[in-house]
Backbone:
């Protein structure tokens, strides 16, 4: 069973390369306790987000899809002292759990959690004249991915990094006749990326403790 190998290797990577961390473990435990869906990124993926932010030297991050703020905390920890992250969450209960986790991580000053439909929040942020972001993580409802990509471009500057999660969907992404709105959202996301001259992107397939999926990584051109 390849899946059990992926899980074992993910555990091995986590043991070797990801230091034991009481806060992050408490966050995952709190999410489980609250019965949130287990859609958080894996520790290895959380650390990838963290490393990308540090490599880029990003100071302003936007995340679409907070859940319990596990990925948010990985991202926020990569920020310098004057860094800021805005994270958007639709579900008030997820947001409540996220808020408590953010407080537990001592990150209230860095993380701004906005509750409500991301598309409405994004429109409001545009009205408020919110400044562009250096790094944007798209990880909410997949049918809206094409719209999130348009908003990500709105809130970007040359050099902004955009990462979109769950874009392989166990290979279903190549199923042209899929009836799954998430698969179709992701396919339209690729179409938009293909025709959008403002962004240069690739996608990487991944396996691990959360199965077979992958992410899109792109940079906004000058
Ligand atoms: N980024 C999180 C992590 O790795 O820890 C996981 C996010 S989970 C995959 C997706 C989240 O997006 C869920 O908490 C869901 O409630 C939220 N969501 C779904 N539709 C949304 C919408 N229209 N606006 C904002 N958030 C939404």
Residues:
């Amino acid at each position: 069973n390849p899946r059990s190998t992926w899980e074992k290797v993910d555990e091995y990577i986590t043991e070797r390369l990801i230091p034991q961390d009481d806060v992050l473990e408490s966050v995952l435990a709190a999410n489980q306790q609250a019965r949130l869906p287990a859609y958080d990124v894996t520790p290895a993926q959380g650390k990838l987000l963290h490393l990308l932010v540090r490599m880029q030297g990003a100071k302003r991050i936007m995340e679409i899809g907070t859940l319990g703020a596990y990925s948010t905390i990985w991202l926020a920890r990569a920020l310098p002292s004057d860094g800021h992250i805005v994270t958007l969450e639709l579900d008030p209960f997820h947001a409540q759990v996220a808020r408590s986790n953010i407080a537990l991580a001592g990150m209230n000053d860095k993380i701004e959690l906005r509750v409500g439909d991301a598309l409405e929040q994004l429109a409001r942020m545009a009205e408020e004249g919110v400044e562009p972001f250096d790094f944007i993580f798209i990880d909410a409802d997949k049918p809206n991915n094409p719209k999130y990509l348009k908003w990500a471009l709105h809130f970007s500057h040359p050099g902004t990094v955009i990462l979109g999660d769950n874009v392989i969907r166990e290979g279903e992404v190549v199923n042209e006749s899929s009836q799954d709105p998430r698969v179709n959202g992701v396919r339209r996301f690729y179409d938009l990326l293909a025709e959008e001259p403002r962004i240069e992107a690739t996608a990487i397939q991944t396996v691990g403790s959360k199965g077979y999926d992958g992410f899109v990584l792109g940079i906004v051109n000058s």
